[in-house]
Amino acid sequence: xxxxxxxxxxxxxxxxxxxxxxxxxxxxxxxxxxxxxxxxxxxxxxxxxxxxxxxxxxxxxxxxxxxxxxxxxxxxxxxxxxxxxxxxxxxxxxxxxxxxxxxxxxxxxxxxxxxxxxxxxxxxxxxxxxxxxxxxxxxxxxxxxxxxxxxxxxxxxxxxxxxxxxxxxxxxxxxxxxxxxxxxxxxxxxxxxxxxxxxxxxxxxxxxxxxxxxxxxxxxxxxxxxxxxxxxxxxxxxxxxxxxxxxxxxxxxxxxxxxxxxxxxxxxxxxxxxxxxxxxxxxxxxxxxxxxxxxxxxxxxxxxxxxxxxxxxxxxxxxxxxxxxxxxxxxxxxxxxxxxxxxxxxxxxxxxxxxxxxxxxxxxxxxxxxxxxxxxxxxxxxxxxxxxxxxxxxxxxxxxxxxxxxxxxxxxxxxxxxxxxxxxxxxxxxxxxxxxxxxxxxxxxxxxxxxxxxxxxxxxxxxxxxxxxxxxxxxxxxxxxxxxxxxxxxxxxxxxxxxxxxxxxxxxxxxxxxxxxxxxxxxxxxxx
Length: 528
Prior knowledge:
Rossmann fold, six-stranded mixed sheet, three-stranded antiparallel sheet, 22 helices, elongated
């Protein structure tokens, strides 16, 4: 029976999927680094390796070896870890099953390290069994994970206690990756003092720090799409007013930018019917009726339904906002490579919805959606991110790419930049032309912009009737912002009789559709 001290598992089941472009190359990365570990005198007996791990590998390895530390590196969900199934597809090992398994080896195994997303709850359960565990609160960036692992295992194999090693690794994160410094957490069971817990006491020579980088090596997912680096030319004089290409695809579901052929095939016909019916209800603004259908399809395993469910919880459409539930569903959808899920997960990281703000992870998930699915909406979100950072050249760069990929919403975003003179000379006529094209292509953002410029006389004569017409078009497509704007018209008597009751009706409708400003307006007026 082998007496290794650290049993290391790695699994990337998503790399085995038929559309597995850009997956983690974790297994190959580990194998390459393993050669250096085994070649160093005095180190080869510390680690035992199980790559592309399957459930049987886990069971067999624990029988054959006597590890003091069990480490898992790969993908995870709050409800368990993803290993590779016998068919090469993801196989979920639930947290309860892990706890029951480690109960059998209680006494020998003293530490479990879970380098997987959202593994803190599982680590807490395992700490109660083996005594000590490390998990992550949320998703951790690749660079931060490698830094943490390098510092932690470098310390423990050099004779430092688990507590000291954890604190050293955490300090390294605060210096190199402050956004991820609070992600890993050390938890212990009753009566366990990690300052007195040691994995290894070297006698001849210390093990070099580079060994540990292997344990948390995670390949960077995706790469930035390389686009032509040129600023869009002025479009005001062109008869078609707008960048060529795209613009014909109708943007459904209030700016979600859902591709016409997005989503995986449904698992069963009834679940697929639920999703189709739910999407129709969603576009009609019947969010409460859509939610149970989305949930049923999501629980049946349809990624697109998971993504929609995350969106309604994030926006509070037909329900109260539930950031944690939103983030969980979006993350599950993103792991299944749904373009809407990946894009909206990027937004969750960008805005800190259900998780900590993390610009790096926001960009990574946007780029995943671009590189793997050609998502025009993800391109548009990248443009918005750079615009908010006042990197206007990069913003126009991405908005142009989104337009060429079929996003009519991106035309409206570019119109705003022309209207305000952001990165280009201010050109209200060009802005109006872009807004008009976006609106007629079905963009809610374009419709809202057309209503606003007529309401506020931006580059056009003030015309409340035209403003109302455009707002009502957006309302018909389910826009909460347009509902709020209709309330403003009735509150001020702009183009309609001034009517507080009618204004409140519109504000309530907008609030129920997820408008935060409408909710704030109602609260400020002391009504519900």
